[in-house]
Amino acid sequence: MGMQKDWLTTLLLCIFLGVFGVHRFYTGYIAIGLIQLFTFGGCGIWWLIDLIMIATGSFTDSNGLPLVKNV
Predict the structure, then answer these.
(1) How does pLDDT run across 24-63, given as a tens digit for each residue?
(2) Range 5-13, long-range pairs (CB < 8 A, 24+ positions)
(3) Which end of the chain is more exposed for a tag (fewer CB within 10 A), N or C?
(4) Vertex 44 angle, CA 43 and 46, to 5°
C-alpha cells in the first residue's frame, strides 16, 4: 500500500491531460487509465465526470483512500 495521492496534482493532471487518462495512472487505476487513453477520455464524457468527482472530493485512489488536500 503506497502513500495517499495529492488532490491538487490529480486535479491538474485531469484538467490538462485527462483525456489521456493520466490522472487515472497517477492514482493507480492502470486498466481504466489505458481505456481512457485509447478512447480519449470516453470521448470527453468520462473525463468530465472524473473532473467533477475530483473537484468535489469524491474521487479516491486505487486503494480506496481519499485524495489528500495539502493546505
Answers:
(1) 999 999 999 999 999 998 999 999 999 999 999 999 999 9
(2) 5/61, 5/65, 5/67, 5/68, 6/67, 6/68, 6/70, 7/54, 7/57, 7/67, 7/68, 7/69, 7/70, 8/69, 8/70, 10/54, 10/59, 10/67, 11/51, 11/54, 11/55
(3) C
(4) 100
pTM of the model: 0.92
Closest among 55, 51, 43, 3 to 23, alpha carbons compared: 51
* Residue in the block written with cell 493546505: 71
Instruction: State the sign of the Cα–Cα–Cα–Cα dihedral 17, 31, 54, 43.
Output: positive
